[in-house]
Write a structure and sequence with these properties.
The protein is 53% helix and 8% strand. The strands form two sheets. The protein has a four-stranded parallel β-sheet with strand order 2-1-3-4. A four-stranded parallel β-sheet has the order 6-5-7-8, with helices on both faces. Strand 7, helix 24 and strand 8 form a beta-alpha-beta unit. It has 407 residues and is of the alpha/beta class.
């Protein structure tokens, strides 16, 4: 694709990065076939190719409008298009640049600004945990729109003494998972303990930065990335941990991009690269120890595995995860359109509920035809979003493994 960037963009870091990405695009349209929003809306501007043109126009000097902003907002950032693209277009990085530029030029309506501010501040607030506990206590009285976002609270169970293990890893504290579904972290601790690995939390670490980054606050997100690196660095530098384990693929996908986002920061670029080299999804840690676990598990669980976009398109870990589940004895049931997003996409399901529910129901309709005993995934957002539309239990796969180990 030929470009002629405006003078204000031509010599900026963002402009140069965007220009390199744009020039790889041959506008073949393969990406539209796998774009969830294009599948639903059928609008060229709600597919990757159309959004690429919109971003190109802005970089070439055309003033963006509220319509431009809405088309970019409707992108789920699932990166399915990147998996499909024969030219290697890094659409995810391009849309990050495009959204940032458009948000600088187009003022959002105040209700939209308020929603985004409340989401950012609320999900990163120390008050989120007590608010979630209150919501869970009053869950039956909440309206449907809120009840869908409040999972039932389950018993965490006893936690192991992980200090006895020679092998140690770090786990991300995260922002919402410890409050919404603490059973995922507890299950991860016990499963890792069962294979001889101790997991601990890095004091001072918090949200990975994804919430702020995708809600018009990229500067605040970069500060969160730096804070996490600072929290992890003493243990990493001392060689006390062999990996940083992620049990939420959305967080893992973001932390694996720290080196990209901080590449121009002289104080953090090298350390970010070191951190990224240590980041592993929990499936990557468990996979080499299948034999240790399999004899203690009950085979034959009829399950549908929903691979989150951040697992399969961002990190390329769908094959490893599916192989792991099969080796652990799950009977995985194939269903249509496993490559398409379920509609969760972080805060997307709150900001774009109609699209999110349409995609959720399509996903669940395909899954329901396999009649699974349980639907398993690898990201809290997908788990809660899918659970809101079905009576079939939806769990993180590590929870199911943990329950069998304890049972």
């Amino acid at each position: 694709m030929q470009t002629d960037l405006a003078s204000w963009a031509r010599n900026t870091d963002q402009g140069r990065e965007a220009d390199a990405i744009l020039r790889r695009c041959v506008h073949c349209g393969f990406c539209t076939a796998t774009c969830p929003t294009y599948q639903v809306l059928g609008d060229e501007l709600d597919g990757p190719r159309g959004r690429i043109y919109l971003i190109k126009q802005v970089l070439e000097g055309k003033e963006p409008t509220r319509s431009t902003q809405e088309h970019l907002d409707r992108c789920l950032t699932c990166r399915n298009c990147e998996t499909t693209c024969p030219s290697g277009v890094q659409y995810g990085h391009l849309v990050d640049i495009g959204r940032n530029l458009v948000d600088q030029k187009v003022t959002r309506p105040w209700p939209d600004r308020l929603r985004r501010l409340l989401l950012r501040k609320g999900m990163n607030s120390s008050l989120f945990a007590p608010a979630m506990r209150l919501g869970q206590a009053m869950r039956d009285m909440l309206p449907d729109s809120l009840r869908r976002k409040v999972p039932e609270r389950r018993d965490v169970g006893a936690l192991p003494d992980v200090s006895r293990h020679t092998r140690q890893v770090l786990m991300l504290t995260g922002c919402v998972q410890p409050s919404m579904m603490p059973t995922i972290d507890a299950a991860t601790l016990r499963v890792l303990d069962a294979i001889g690995i101790g997991a601990r939390l890095g004091p001072g670490a918090g949200c990975c930065g994804a919430v702020n980054f995708h809600l018009d606050a990229q500067s605040e997100a970069l500060d969160q990335m730096r804070a996490n690196i600072d929290a992890w660095w003493p243990l990493v530098e001392a060689g006390s941990v062999e990996a940083i384990v992620m049990n939420a693929s959305g967080c893992g996908a973001m932390v694996k991009e720290y080196a990209h986002h901080l590449r121009l920061d002289p104080a953090y670029a090298a350390r970010a690269e070191r951190i990224v080299s240590l980041v592993k999804d929990v499936a990557e840690i468990v996979a080499p120890h299948v034999e240790t676990l399999r004899s203690r598990l009950t085979p034959g669980v009829r399950a549908a595995f929903h691979p989150p976009c951040t697992l399969q398109h961002w990190q390329g870990l769908r094959p490893l995860s599916e192989r792991l589940l099969l080796d652990l004895g799950f009977e995985l049931q194939p269903f249509a359109d496993t490559h398409l997003c379920c509609g969760s996409a972080g805060a997307y399901s709150v900001l774009n509920p109609e699209m999110a529910l349409e995609l959720r129901d399509r996903k669940l309709s395909a899954i329901s035809q396999t009649r699974p005993e349980v639907i398993v995934s690898a990201n809290i957002g997908c788990v809660t979003h899918l659970q809101s539309g079905t009576e079939v239990p939806v769990r993180h796969w590590v929870e199911v493994v943990d329950e069998q180990l304890r049972g």
